[in-house]
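To: structure subgroup
Subject: Chain for Friday's discussion

All,

I'm putting the inputs and outputs inline so they're searchable in the archive.
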Amino acid sequence: MANCDINNPVHRKKRYITFAIITVVSLVLPFIRVNGNHFFLLNFSTKQLNLLFTSFDMQELYLMPFVLILLFLGIFFMTTLGGRVWCGWSCPQTIFRTIYRDLLQTKLLNLRRNTNNKQTNTKKGRYFQKTVAITIWFILAFVAASNFIWYFLPPETYFKFLQHPMDHTVFLGFLAGITLFLIYDVIMLKENFCIYICPYARVQSVMFDENTILPIYSEKRGGKIYDEHGIKLWSKPPAPEDDCTGCEACVRVCPTHIDIRKGMQLECINCLECADACVPIMAKFGKKSLIQWTSENEEEHEIKTKYVRFKTIAYGVALTIALAGLILMGSMKEHMLLNINRTSRLYKVKNEGKSVENIYTFLFQNTDSKEHRYYFEVNNKDIKIIRPKKPFILKAREKIRKVVILKTTKTLIKTNKKDTPIPIVIKAYATDDKKDITVFRNTVFFYPRQSVIEKKRRESE
């Protein structure tokens, strides 16, 4: 990172390109489907999870912790390497503020002087332009809120709900709430969200070390502006060998209103606007920017930055384990789900004590994207299926409860002590795809003690 060509004011352009890519991907991704499944969709309407274009039922939500672990570990890993680079280059809050402040207010409506000055408020008056800016952002906030909802409600369902919003008041409430929050956040709260509300700003510093890449002002070249207590000494260092001109271009351009010359601060989001702002000033003297994206070791101690170190290795190992766990658990997806419950009555003794029946409730669910015909087997040859008699069809993602009766006419065990639970295995499968859609479930078949059978025989005589 520190070896990039940072002497050219290109970081803003790179950030804008990154913002554009993230925006396009986030908007388009919900509309891409493979075999009817989305890349990521936590669908509350159908109680399903789509992950990597594979559908999982809510009973398979054990995958979500792996997804969240990967997300947080990934951000922590980035922070250890490049500081708050997530905030400056990827965070939706930063992207939204850049669109509103730099594009709408500055470039399109001329409400601000230029993108190099983010400290001053908008120009006085110009109420029409300000109204236009708010109106445009209202529309964009609605789109952004919709985009967020598309990862929890598929676009095809979203647009159906939108046609009859009063029939879906919960959906309407979420859409309106998110939209209004984005309007308040971007227009009123601004970067105060990053400074005072976002918890990431408070935890990031514990991930920094002397090899973390940060925007660092070179006191060796520029001169000392603040003392060790953070008190400003002067705008321009007095020594003739100090390169800082005191122009404060780096201060005016900062979106979080800090002075990078004061040192590392929690409010810094690694946007590198300050580094870009210093480039043309120093270029007039034939020198490189006083603000470099580098590490403390490299800037102050002239020690090469170590990218491979204990922290990065630890996060890398943790990420690998979480990813392996996600892949492993995801590969164990079952295309059908089966829950087996017993009735309160353990068994029925029938036919003058010659047969014993157990009654169960089987909950079948087809989690595949197409319909299948299902049936099941019992691993004990002495136990027969009385009900249901034949296979049944389930449509894609359909659930059904089946009353299942298992029967035996054999003497499975002789004892007068107690009723005996006999372990059995139910093999359920799709008759049209038995190779790939098969599940096994353990349950028990209760066989009565001998005294119960003999009593039933005496009653029938």
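Points worth raising on Friday:
The first strand starts at residue 33 and ends at 34.
The chain has 15 helices and 16 strands.

D.
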